[in-house]
Amino acid sequence: MRQNRLKEIRLKNHLTQEELAEKMKTDKVQISRWEHGKAVPRSEALIDLASILGVSVDYLLGLSDEPTIRVRVDNLSVEEMMVITAMRRGDKEDAMRTILNSEKRPPTAV
After folding, report:
1. Greatest Cα-to-Cα distance within the chain, rounded to the nearest angstrom
2. Alpha-carbon torsion 90, 93, 98, 99, what sign?
3. Residue spans per domain, the chain
4. CA spacing 20 to 30 A to 86: which of 1, 25, 40, 55?
5. pLDDT per position as a tens digit, 45-87
6. Residues 110, 77: contact at Cβ < 8 Å?
7. What CATH number is given for 3-61 in this structure?
């Protein structure tokens, strides 16, 4: 993991080490060890860090320089595409109608 990335994104999220540790259900010492490269978070912790901080695991690992999670369009459901299309048209009512109607249908496997 790129040690500077964790601290940088933590600070951008206005979190102290203590606050991040609380969200991660760990302690400040562990966060400090990760930030200084003295320890590496396990895969589950990396996933939690990425989720809490709103970045991708690839960004934390240094595999990507893009901090935000990008949505791939090749695996969106029909309903998701309909919502995005409606929002791009500026038709929030149609987007909400699609969302509400999709909640009534059983989920489809993606």
Report:
1. 51
2. positive
3. 3-61, 73-104
4. 55
5. 999 999 999 899 999 999 988 888 666 677 788 888 899 899 9
6. yes
7. 1.10.260.40
